[in-house]
Amino acid sequence: MDRAQKEKVVEELAQIFESSGVVVVAHYAGVTVAQMQELRAQMRDVGGSVRVAKNRLAKIALAGKPSEKMGDLLTGMTVMAYSEDPVAAAKVAEAYAKKNDKFVILGGAMGDTILDPAGVKTVAAMPSREELIAQIVSCIGAPASSIAGAIGAPASNIAGILSTLEEREAA
């Protein structure tokens, strides 16, 4: 890899560290190519990505960034999983680590907050952006359906009373 390629990689990594909601760092020694492809596919499904890069270049890219202390995690064979959604990459990485013993989560960063493995697990347990939106919409929609039910209830009560009166007159 020549100097220009290294500079391009550092630039790409810097962009990843700036724009990602969460970056998870893990060891992947012993993970097969097929297993790595499976991880990449799962990450792609949630809008995230997986990147393997030289630790030294990643540390250079982290220089001056809010998550600069994450550089301490970059030792050995590391892979970075990241996504714009602050929860998606952590969820996929945590689920994958449960299935594959050779994929060991070291920690990560969420903005300027450095996460240890327990922190990544906590982030993974949080609801995703889509789940939060669904919860908010259901909270907003619940009062409206209650109001509609309350407005419709007197009319149905009146209809019930009228039908009872009709039955009495017919009898």
List the helices and strands and how they pair.
Elements: H1 3-19, E1 22-27, H2 33-45, E2 48-51, H3 55-62, E3 78-83, H4 88-99, E4 104-110, E5 113-115, H5 117-125, H6 129-170
Antiparallel strand pairs: 1-3, 1-4, 2-3, 4-5
Helix pairs in contact: 1-3, 4-5
Model description:
It is a single chain. 59% of the residues lie in helices and 15% in strands. The radius of gyration is 26 Å and the shape is elongated. The model has no long low-confidence stretch (mean pLDDT 85). The chain folds into two domains: 3-126, Alpha-Beta Plaits (2-Layer Sandwich), CATH 3.30.70; 127-171. Strand 4 and strand 5 (113-115) form a beta hairpin. The chain contains six helices and five strands. By secondary structure, the protein is an alpha+beta fold. Forms part of the ribosomal stalk, playing a central role in the interaction of the ribosome with GTP-bound translation factors. One of its GO terms (biological process) is translation. Belongs to the universal ribosomal protein uL10 family. This is Large ribosomal subunit protein uL10. Keywords: Ribonucleoprotein, Ribosomal protein, RNA-binding, rRNA-binding.
Shape type:
elongated
What is the CATH C level class of the largest domain, in words? Alpha Beta
The CATH superfamily of the largest domain bears the name Ribosomal protein L10, N-terminal RNA-binding domain
β-strand amount:
15-25%
CATH architectural category of the largest domain: 2-Layer Sandwich
Biggest sheet descriptor: 5 strands, antiparallel
- What is the topology, as strand order, of the major beta sheet? 2-3-1-4-5
Gyration radius, in Å: 26 Å
CATH domain topology of the largest domain: Alpha-Beta Plaits
DSSP, total strands = 5
Oligomerization category of the chains in this entry: single chain
Number of domains: 2
Q: What is the H/E string?
A: HEHEHEHEEHH
Which structural class matches the secondary elements? alpha+beta
Overall pLDDT, averaged? 85
**Low-pLDDT sequence parts:** none
InterPro entries: Ribosomal_uL10 (IPR001790), Ribosomal_uL10-like_sf (IPR043141), Ribosomal_uL10_bac (IPR022973), Ribosomal_uL10_bac_type (IPR047865), Ribosomal_uL10_CS_bac (IPR002363)
GO cellular component, one term: large ribosomal subunit
Family: Belongs to the universal ribosomal protein uL10 family.
GO molecular function: large ribosomal subunit rRNA binding; structural constituent of ribosome
